[in-house]
């Protein structure tokens, strides 16, 4: 199984890049997993307490479960991954079944910051988009899709999103094999990744396999 990690700041276009690759290759051979599904649950906290959590710190995620699921997929077992509800800041009761496919695209803000997670990736990608573009995209998305107010997006951006991006996410770019400027607009970058993936599918014995 080939695992491609797609990191980058919030709103950089990680999901858009991943979905473009799936559109080009078809969903039969490629599956998408978002690190966001592995946000810690915090069942003992009230909504107000959950609202104040720093969701941009690397330790906000249950990466051990994510790694366990990647290992199960690699050994041929399907997995039931958590579903995360951004409007309640909690995992929902449901899970999603992920079947075994030859290619896994793993996208998330911190897929390159964690050493163990990096070790599970065959190709490491960083989507590099200017902060002003990212915050504008995030503002629109969080208000339209994640139940946020304008003020809450401002406050969260300044108190946690930007400081954590500067401290952890931007420095993780150095681990990338491929940097894709401007995300979904970069058709050449997306085509490059698609070609690499196609090549893997036609030659499973290629050098990408981790020992
Ligand atoms: N090139 C683009 N032009 C316009 N809007 C975009 C572009 N890329 C992404 N978006 C929008 O910006 C938001 C964040 O993009 P997304 O791919 O989900 O980023 P990420 O997964 O990095 O947070 C989404 O609403 C998406 O539709
Ligand atoms: N309860 C939560 C959990 C996470 N976030 C924000 O999501 C961002 C990561 O998702 P992207 O799709 O934008 O990569 C991250 O920056 C968190 O701030 C949230 O707002 N609430």
Your description of this structure?
- The longest helix is centred in the last third of the chain and has 20 residues, at 150-169.
- The termini are close together.
- The chain has helices at 14-25, 47-51, 63-74, 115-119, 131-145, 150-169, 187-202; strands spanning 2-8, 30-34, 79-85, 90-98, 103-107, 123-128, 178-181.
- 33% of the residues are buried.
- The strands form two sheets. The chain has a five-stranded parallel sheet, covered by helices on one side. A two-stranded antiparallel sheet has the order 3-4.
- It is globular, with a radius of gyration of 17 Å.
- It is built from seven helices and seven strands.
- 40% of the residues lie in helices and 20% in strands.
- α1 crosses α7 and α5 crosses α6 (150-169).
- It has 211 residues and is of the alpha/beta class.
- The chain has a single domain, classed as P-loop containing nucleotide triphosphate hydrolases (Rossmann fold), CATH 3.40.50.300.
- Residues 10-11, 36, 39, 55-56, 86, 89, 109, 161 line the site of ligand L45E5XJ5.
Brief characterization of the structure:
Belongs to the uridine kinase family. By secondary structure, the chain is an alpha/beta fold.
Order of helices and strands: EHEHHEEEHEHHEH
How are strands sequenced across the largest beta sheet? 2-5-1-6-7
Cofactors, ions and other ligands in the entry: adenosine-5'-diphosphate, the ligand Nc1ccn([C@@H]2O[C@H](COP(=O)(O)O)[C@@H](O)[C@H]2O)c(=O)n1
Q: Which fold name fills CATH's third level, the topology?
A: Rossmann fold
The N- and C-terminal alpha carbons lie at a distance of: 12 Å
What is the name of the CATH superfamily? P-loop containing nucleotide triphosphate hydrolases
- Under the CATH scheme, which architecture would be assigned? 3-Layer(aba) Sandwich
Strand composition percent: 15-25%
Helix/strand class: alpha/beta
What percent of residues adopt helix (DSSP H or I)? 40-55%
CATH C-level name: Alpha Beta
Shape: globular
| Number of distinct helices | 7
Mean pLDDT: 94
- Which radius of gyration do the C-alpha atoms yield? 17 Å
Number of strands: 7
Tally of domains = 1
Unreliably modeled segments:
none
Largest beta-sheet details: 5 strands, parallel
